[in-house]
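Weekly puzzle thread! Below is a chain. First person to post its structure in token form gets bragging rights.
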Amino acid sequence: MILLNVKRLIMDIFLFRYRQFLVYLGKLELLLGVVFLGAIVVSITLQIFFRYVLQSPLIWVIEFSTGCFIWGSFLCVSYALKKKRHITITTFTIYMSAHARAVLRAVAYLIMNILLIVIAIYALKIIELEGRTTTISLPITISKSWLFSVPILTSSILSLITCVYLMLAEVRAVISGKVSGPIIVIPND
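Winning reply:
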């Protein structure tokens, strides 16, 4: 009995620390998303100024803005997962008990974890292929994989880190019998 309580306490402490880490990670993802969005706005504003006022357009803005958009979008996928902002279909689950919904969520997170691992593995293969080409118009030459494939890998890893926590937290809730609703890493403001 004492050993079981110690195991539960260790799991609770682990999940608490894991959640704290995810909150900080979410803040970083949000900050980087805002930075990428700001970079898009600044670069397009510069492009408009250079094109129409100075009559000398900047050739790198489209490629730069596209890369910032892709990075910002994929970083925000993981952030939205932490805040439970993805679309949820509850047609059948509203008729289930809270316990059954928690079990179903845990299974869904397990499936998501598997899919995210598969995506990461394939992203690594794509990075290798795309690494052979470089940017055309940016002031510095970088591999196109940094603009197109690495964001997919990064997003899948960040989402995997979040999904593992959500799955463990749902399993912990089911085992302890303290099921209240979906677990949200970062509460909505």
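Puzzle host: Confirmed. Bonus trivia for everyone else. The longest helix spans residues 2-52.
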